[in-house]
Amino acid sequence: MTVFVTGGAGFIGSNFVYHQLGKYPQERVVCIDKLTYAGNMRTLQKASEHDNFRFVKADICDRNAIFELFKEEKPDIVVNFAAESHVDRSIEEPEVFLTTNILGTQVLMDACREYGIKRFHQVSTDEVYGDLPLNRPDLMFTEKTPIHTSSPYSASKAAADLLVQAYIRTFKLPATISRCSNNYGPFHFPEKLIPLMITKALADKALPVYGKGVNVRDWLYVEDHCKAIDMIIRDGKEGEVYNIGGHNEMANIDIVKLICTELGKPESLITYVEDRKGHDLRYAIDPTKIHNELGWLPETRFADGIKSTIQWYLDNRAWWEEILSGEYRSIEL
Ligand code: NAD
Ligand code: DAU
């Protein structure tokens, strides 16, 4: 069995690579990553020592390179994590989001059609559903919630989802889609809320909270996301969409205050800054389907996961300091 993991030098993709190599050491994992600013070879250092791991630097939009690799490796399963993933960057520069997130997905699916695969899995996001009001805790996103996007990032992910569904119907591509809520854990790039606040607090720098900090996100430990994807690619039904989330809604300001408390830093570091344009108010996933059909349940409680994540950033200073200094861009393994 050969599993292609695109975007495996990023946050969730790398956690998935380690999950796969740990659980199925006899299977081959080929990681394809362009190494944009979000990709980091240091993250894959331990994986690269594994006999069944191969790293290929390639852009998923590069049709020739991708087709060649499919021809050579004949993957059974393709899991597409590769994406531009940061909402703020999509507001500054939308174009690369459309190129990678939509056209890159198309190239991968065309290669899957050409060479045949058992499963193509698209890693999507709850952001394709838009947002929910703060005063309606009874409302949650189900797989039937209409697509309704807010940012160029979420629009590009929604467009990719629609394209996957078109390939499923028109070409009978054996594909699945998962839509997960906000992840946190090891190897999270320090531009996203939780690692940004941890690394800034450790340096006694201002903690920039957008607007009033009341926006709510539904946090899931990254390992639980990886386990859910593993279940979907092996036991999920072709053509289906699965929501993934652990019923853990938190306001941003409460997360930032918790990080201050855990690190023994004063809340006076918190600085309210201009709000994100089009800022989604609240995300909340209803994971009933994946629980009922595949038996998935989150295993890590937020209270434990956030402690171990903070500890990971304390224990792995060199990892994020290399990012802050820019040295990580020139690592070769
Ligand atoms: P990330 O930004 O940390 O990593 C993205 C990876 O993709 C990087 O290694 C980057 O180098 C690579 N990449 C970017 N463009 C590429 C291209 N053209 N060709 C090949 N590789 C390319 O992202 P992440 O947070 O790990 O997210 C992974 C996936 O999960 C994305 O599709 C994202 O939409 C989705 N997702 C993320 C979250 C979250 O909370 N982070 C939640 C739900 C879904
Ligand atoms: O819901 C899933 C999505 O979660 C994924 O699809 C995205 O790829 C991922 O980046 C994440 O998107 P968010 O926009 O929710 O994550 P981010 O960490 O950028 O922001 C989380 C919340 O924190 C959001 O309400 C904005 C706020 N924020 C963020 C930053 C970076 C701040 O208040 N200050 C900040 O400096």
What does this structure look like?
It is a single chain. The chain has 333 residues and is α/β, with parallel strands linked by helices. Helix content is 41%, strand content 17%. It contains eleven helices and 13 strands. The chain has helices spanning 11-23, 63-73, 87-92, 95-115, 152-171, 193-202, 222-235, 252-263, 288-294, 302-315, 317-325; strands at residues 2-6, 28-33, 53-57, 77-80, 119-125, 175-180, 183-184, 207-210, 216-218, 220-221, 241-244, 249-251, 270-273. A seven-stranded parallel beta sheet has the order 3-2-1-4-5-6-11, with helices on both faces. The chain has a two-stranded parallel ribbon with strand order 7-10. Strands 8-13 form a two-stranded parallel sheet. β1, α1 and β2 form a beta-alpha-beta unit. α2 runs parallel beside α4 and α6 (193-202) packs parallel to α8 (252-263). The longest helix is centred in the N-terminal third of the chain and has 21 residues, at 95-115. It is globular and about 55 Å long. The two termini are 25 Å apart. The mean pLDDT is 98. The protein binds nicotinamide-adenine-dinucleotide and 2'deoxy-thymidine-5'-diphospho-alpha-D-glucose. 2'deoxy-thymidine-5'-diphospho-alpha-D-glucose binds next to α6 and β8.
